[in-house]
Every structure is written in structure tokens, then in C-alpha cells.
Amino acid sequence: MSRSPSLPSMLQVVLVLGLFLLLAFSFTTLFDLPVHLALFIGWFVVMGLGIWLGHDYRSLEQAAAEGIYNGTGAILILLSVGVLTGTWIAGGIVPAIIYSGLNTISPGLFLPTTVLICSMTALATGTSWGAAGTAGIAMMGIGQSLGVPAPITAGAVLSGVYFGDKLSPLSDSVVLASSMSGVDISRHIRRMLPVSLTSYCITLALFTITGLQYGHHMDLDRVQQVIYAIDQHFNIGWHCMIPPIAIIVLLAMNKPAFPTISFGALLGVIWAILFQHTDPVTALRSAWVLPQPDTGVTILNSLLANGGMQGMLGSLAVIVFGLGFGSLLEKTGIIHALADRLEKHINNESKLTGCTLLTAFMGNLLGSAMYFSLILTPRLLINTYDRMKADRHLLSRNTEFGGTLTSGMVPWSDNGIFMTGVLGVATLDYLPYMWLSFTCIGVAMLFSRIKPMKLNMVTPATDRNYSKSLNQTFSKSNSQ
């Protein structure tokens, strides 16, 4: 008769997580090795601990497989955005947006304009990935043409897309954070508004000040070279705006992201054939990989070669390994051991907020996926909130801030890998400019100190409904 698995000690938790973080950091920063290898090795480290604790290999493998399965939606969107990027460049859609932006956007106001455009796109579509893969790519191209450092432009893009994503009722992160906390979506969004709008205004001010500094030193001759090169190599016109408008409308109508973005990629192929006079085989090949362009402008060449599904395969491997790794951490009890240790230090609302934000960040850091963080955080802390008679809207708000806004900060997380692949900027390079994320977390902590939210005991009916939903969601995981 096999013994029941035991929980890991804090020494075992520290050794396993310390080894993984050491591998991830050294591989990516010291040895120029892909983080894929660190995650791959991490699987066997955690599995070794799991077997030592009494788990059988089959159950560990099944846990990793289920973690990957739960992230299938994100994987499909990742691949579809890669396809869309390639076909929209071949179809002249992305070049047309860059062309229009260079002719209309004031150089000094480029950065705050980037934040506004990306936030409106994400708010309307409910997807940070879709907004970054469309409006974000175009703004990166405009920024490079204007001479704005790519990491700063990427920071403006990320500030915009994450702001819109976490306030859109169409966003999967909003739905997940609110449902896992047992609260209504509309009230969840309303409770986030004071902190979110305060942080948004601060972020816009910071990017405005920064943009004005660069506006005085921009090389307008280079801008004209880019405009001329686009005009010579692409057929630019009003027709190029039809696909992005169509996709934004479909996503705003709450249509599923994967088929909608794939349909947008198909429009890119059609546009390449009809308006750019590309032969059908070359147009279709752009969905996989783009040929190396020769426009005579180095910046434009690098931008127009960044697209296609092939460029997303490395990111796909990281997400697959990351999802499995996070599930193994939960299966072996490592995540729960950390949460139990944190809970012992919680005795007021400020510490409760800080613990929630930290737990959500650790979900991204160790679980390598925003979905993992948004599911794990309420699951671990909801009993603590109820014990302290804290409003569950505080839990959903803090989970959203800590899970969504830090997801792009981790180089081996799904969002970090995706944003790096789409925007062409390394995670650690754009990290210092994710000003919305930093200000939002800071303002949330400040509000918890000077204006604590009203504490409310959750009604038994609400608690029963949440418990029923939670049990259904995790029935497979708990049966292992």
C-alpha cells in the first residue's frame, strides 16, 4: 500500500525554487542560453521532489499535462497573432498604419499618444495580446522611425494594453479574476477604477514629459525616408484600414479571439494579393515567415521582417514548459507552502493587499503564466479574506493588479515571451518603462493605507456559490 504524499518543508521549497531561479537567471543573463532549458530542467527538479514526497510519476506527468491543456487558448492566440502580423505586413496594413502615424502624430506627443491608442484598442477588444500584436506593432514602427528608443516605446505600448485589458468586460483576465473571487464583473471593474485612473493619469504625465524631451531631437529626415520607402514599396490607401477596423469590431462584439484573429490574418493574405500584387503562394507563405525586405531603410527592413508563425514557435515552447512547471509546483504543494508562510504575517489590510500582490506576482514568476496566477491567487487567499472579513472585491482587484500587470515582467512567462516576440524588445529592457504597472501597484498599496476599503463579511450564500463554482473548476485537479 503506497503512502500518502507529504507536504514539502520550507527548506525543500527554498532549495527547489532557488535552484530554478538560479538556472533561469544564469541561463538568460550570464550564459546566453535559452530559458527553455531552465524550465526543462526545472520539470525534473520538481518531479524529483514530488517523488521524494510520495507522489507517483504518472500523477505528476498528468498534472503537467493538465496545466498545458488549461493554457491551450493562450497558445492558439499566440500562434494566430504571429500569423496575423506576417500577413498584415505583407498586405500593407501595418505599413499603412505606420505611414499614417508618421504623417499625423506630433513627435513630441508620440509616447502619450501610444498609451492612449493602445489602451483604447485593448479596452475595445478585451485582449492585451491582440492590441499589442496590431496597434502595438504599428506604434513600435512609428517610434523607431521617430528615433524614440524601442524600450521606451514598448513601455508605452504595454502600459496602454494592460490598462485597457484589465478594465474591459470582454477581457478573459477580468472574467477570471472576478469569477475566481466570487464577485460580479461590473462591480469588480468599478472597484478598480479609482486606482486605475489615478495611475493612468500619472503614467500619461510621465510619458508626456519623456516624449517632449525626445521630440526636440528627432531626425525628421529619417522620418521622411521611412515615409518615402513605404510609399515606394506598398500600395497605401484607405482600403488598408478595413481589416483592423473589422477585427476590432468583431472582438468588441465578444467574438472568440482565436478565430477572429485568424480571420484577420486571412484578410491580410487577400489584401496582399489584391492590393500589393503579391502572388498567392508568397502571400500565403507570409503567414509562416516573411522574406527579408530591401527597402533601403535599415529600420524599416528590420520591422517588416518581424512576423509569421515561425517566429512564435520559440515562445510557444516556453509557454508549454512554463504551464507544466507551474502545475507541478502546485501539485507538489510548493505553492501552498509559500502561501501558508505568507499568511502568518497578515494582520491588517495593508499587509493583506501586499501579500495578494506578491502572491500574484509569484504566480507569474514561478507558474510562468498569467492564467496560473489569476487562478492560484484567489484559490490560496480567499479563506484569509473571509477570515479577516475583508471585501472580496478587494481580493479580485488585487489579484487583477498583481496578476495582469506583472505578467509581462517575467522573461519566461507567457506574456513576457509574447511581448518580447511581438515588440522585438527584450523583457528586461522594457521592464523599467512599464510605468503603469509600477504606479498602479504603488497606488493600490497607498490606498490600502490611507483609505482602506470597507470590510464586509461575505454572506453564506455567496460563499456557497463560490465554493460550488470553485469545486467544479478544479474537480479534475483535486481528484489527482
From TrEMBL:
Belongs to the NhaC Na(+)/H(+) (TC 2.A.35) antiporter family. Residues 160-447 form the Na+/H+ antiporter NhaC-like C-terminal domain. The keyword Iron-sulfur does not apply. It is a multi-pass membrane protein. This is Na+/H+ antiporter NhaC. The chain crosses the membrane at residues 36-54, 75-98, 110-132, 197-216, 236-253, 260-278, 311-329, 350-376, 430-447. The lineage of its organism: Bacteria, Pseudomonadati, Pseudomonadota, Gammaproteobacteria, Oceanospirillales. It comes from Endozoicomonas gorgoniicola. It comes from the Bacteria. Keywords: Antiport, Cell membrane, Membrane, Transmembrane, Transmembrane helix, Transport. It is found in: Cell membrane. Its main location: membrane.
